[in-house]
Structures are given as C-alpha cells and as structure tokens.
Amino acid sequence: MRTGVDGFQGQRLNQLRMAQNLTLAELGEQLGRSSSTVSAWEKGTQLPEVESFDRLCHVFQVSRMWFLKPVPPVVQESQRPYFFRSQASVHKQARERSQLYLAWLQEISDFFQDAMDWPEVNVPMLDADDCRLISDEEIEDIARECREAWKLGSAPIPNVIQIMENAGIICTRATLGHVKMDGVSHVSVLDGRPYVLIAEDKANAIRSRFDAAHELGHVVLHAKIPAAQYAKKELYDLLEGQAHRFASAFLMPPESFAQEVVWPTLDNLLSLKSRWKVSVASMIVRCRDLSLLREQLELRLWKGRSARKWTKGEPGDDALAFEQPKLMMRGAHLLLDNGIFERTELVHQIGLPPATIEMLCNLRPGYLSVQSDAGDNVVPLKLKHNTGRAGRSKQADVLPFQK
Q: What's the predicted TM-score (pTM) here?
C-alpha cells in the first residue's frame, strides 16, 4: 500500500497546473499517473506517494515546501473584487492566470514583510460602495487629491509606476498570453495593501502607462465596491469608464493640460505626446471631457486618425521605454545583500520556481541562481528588528524601507 505525503496541499498543485495551462491528462502523462489520480490529489481526496511527490517538484521546479505550505486564509476575500481591464473580451484562462500571479505576488510580499517594511500605504480612496453613485466631478476631484497627496503638482508625470510604488502599491508586470488582457488590480486582505499587475503582452509603452493609471483608478475609486456589484455585466462598462476617466484626469490635469491644447488638431495633439506621454486617442477623449472641442470636431479628429492609419499604432508609440516596477526587486536585493537569506534559501522558503519569482519581482533572469549586482534604489529600504515566523529556517532582522 502506498503511503501518501502528509500535509500535501492540493490547491497548490491546482495553482501550478493552471499557471502552466496544463490539463489533468497532460500533467498525468508527464507523471505516469491517470488524470483521475491527479484530480484526486488536487481535491485532497488522495495524497501523492513520495515518488510522485518528488516528480511533481521536478516537473514544476518548485521546492517541497511549496506543496506543504497551506494557501493563506482569505477571510472575506471573495468580497473584494479583482478588477480586470477588458474583461468582456478576455479569455478565461488569461484572467485566471493574472489573478493567480497577483495572489502569488501578495504571498511573496507578505514573506518579505517578515523582515522589512514597505512604504506605508498612502492612497486616497473614495468612500463609495455603489459605483452608480460616483460622479465625474468626484472622479476629477480625487484625481486632483492624489496629485496633491503625492506632491505631483500639475505637470506631466514622469513615471506612473514609480509614483504608485512610492504610495505603497505593489506592482508587477507579467506575460499572460492574451493581447486583450491589460491588467488586474486588487486590495489584499492579507495586508490591506493594493496590488497591481500590468500585462506585458502589448508592445506599447504609452498604452502600458495608461493601463497602470487605469488600475490605479480602480484602487482609488472602487476599493470599497463589493465583488457582487462588479460581477454584474450591466455595471462593467460603468466601472471601466470610471477608471478610464480617472486615468485621464490623473495623467492630464485640467488646469495645465487644457492650457497647452491651443487648438485640438491631430498634429497639435501629436506634438504634445512626448511631453504628456499619452496617446493622441487619449488626448481626444480628454479634450472632450474638458469641453475643449465640439462633437463635430471630435468626429473629424477620429475620422482623421483612422485615415492616417493610427488605429493600430500612432507615431511615437515606440519612443518611450516601458516603466518597470522596482519595489519587489529592491526588497529581494535588500534581503539578500544584508545576508538575511542566501539565494537558494530564499527560493526554498518562497517555494515557487526561481523564474516565476524573478518575473514577479522584476529580477533579472537567472538572478536567483547567478551572482549579480543589486539594482539602483529610488526609495530607501530598512530592515526590521525582531522578526521571523515559526517554521522559517532563519531568524531575520527587519530591514527599514524609508522614504
């Protein structure tokens, strides 16, 4: 009779299988086991024997600890929605993968926080539990409030992701395998901290930058919106439109942007693109929101944009480098450079494949297995003084993360 591995967490196996888009049959074939057996492992009705357990670790390149570590309890997690941009047309698989990556990011962040402090969350959030009651005026006001809270003035924002991270939002970029998947955001019940994932599938830094501002909009506007409301199809367009409006107001504040739009022609707007780092299409919408053009002129601009074949790409789209998250990367560097963990021990404790940790933390490929220099710092970090959870092999000092 085979002896199963006690403490095996079937949900962890399901997570890895979903992340790699494997069917039960495909995974079973790699393991030499039936799909029904793999399904039983995931459901917890059967435990894998030692040989199969070791084979699972090898196939997925994870430590044994990963399969023995319970998924964190998510009390009332279902009440806090995951905001998916372009949800209506996105493949279910891409949504599941993005949600899974964001959940793993939260776990890694929680692990890091045993030994260090992230910047405090400093994000103005609208106190509204019904999106139908949020007005355009409130959106404009809270976009202005965010700029004031973060001392941005009314000038163009150099780096949206850096601003978000300085405000305590944990960001990551990941390839999701679907070009219509733009991003996902969520306020975690683990630490009350916003987490944002930006899809890397689109080769347009201008669009990616707007996606980041859009996800920030969900955090600011919809953090208290119940998941049940977000699930209603009739409200989806409203929620997305509100996040769009916030992104526009945040990136193009009325008092400064309107002054620079002398006359809203395509060429004039294009000349502003490199300064404001937004698309011409976004500027047309913003001009409409600010009543800087009439309906007839707006229609003419859209037709002209289409005639110039800008619908699939505008001039200047490739001139801007992608904004990169750095907070998780710097956290990993801090723990390793201060000797809190060796690289192999860090990978072992987290449990995920090294390549997955590197992706979510925006570490250079191979960093966790090859010696490399730490990256540059933007906001100082600091270690804590008394830390270490039960079950972790090393007692850590807590590293400060100061502004």
A: 0.86
Check residue 303 and give its pLDDT: 98
Q: Is 335 helix (H, G, I), strand (E, B) or coil?
A: helix
* Length of the chain in terms of residues written: 403
Contact of 195 with 102, CB cutoff 8 Å = yes
351, pLDDT greater than 50: yes
Q: Which domains does the chain have, with CATH numbers?
A: 10-68 (1.10.260.40), 76-324 (no CATH), 327-400 (no CATH)
What's the pLDDT band for 377 if we cut at 50, 70, 90?
Answer: very low
How far from 84 is each of 89, 93, 114, 198, CA to CA, in Å? Answer: 11, 12, 29, 10
Tokens representing 70 are 């319970």
Specify whether the CB–CB gap between 244 and 214 falls below 8 A: yes
114 closest CA partner among 189, 195, 190: 190
- Biggest CA pair distance of the chain: 81
258-270 pLDDT tens trace: 999 989 999 999 9
How far, in Å, CA of 350 to CA of 65, rounded?
A: 8
Residue 53, both tokens: 């357990």
Measure the CA–CA gap between 187 and 3, rounded to whole angstroms: 40
Mean of the per-residue pLDDT values of the chain: 87
**Which residue type does 178 have?**
H
- Cβ atoms of 209 and 160 within 8 Å: the answer is yes
d(CA 156, CA 290): 17
Helix residue ranges per DSSP H, 195-294: 205-222, 227-230, 233-251, 254-260, 266-276, 280-289
Q: Tell me, rounded to whole angstroms, the distance of Cα 387 from its chain centroid.
A: 27
Contact present, 298 and 288 (Cβ < 8 Å) = yes
Q: How far is CA 177 from CA 46, 197, 357, in A?
A: 32, 14, 18
Distance, C-alpha 21 to centroid of its chain = 20
Q: What is the CA radius of gyration of the chain?
A: 23
- Residue 201: the pLDDT is 74
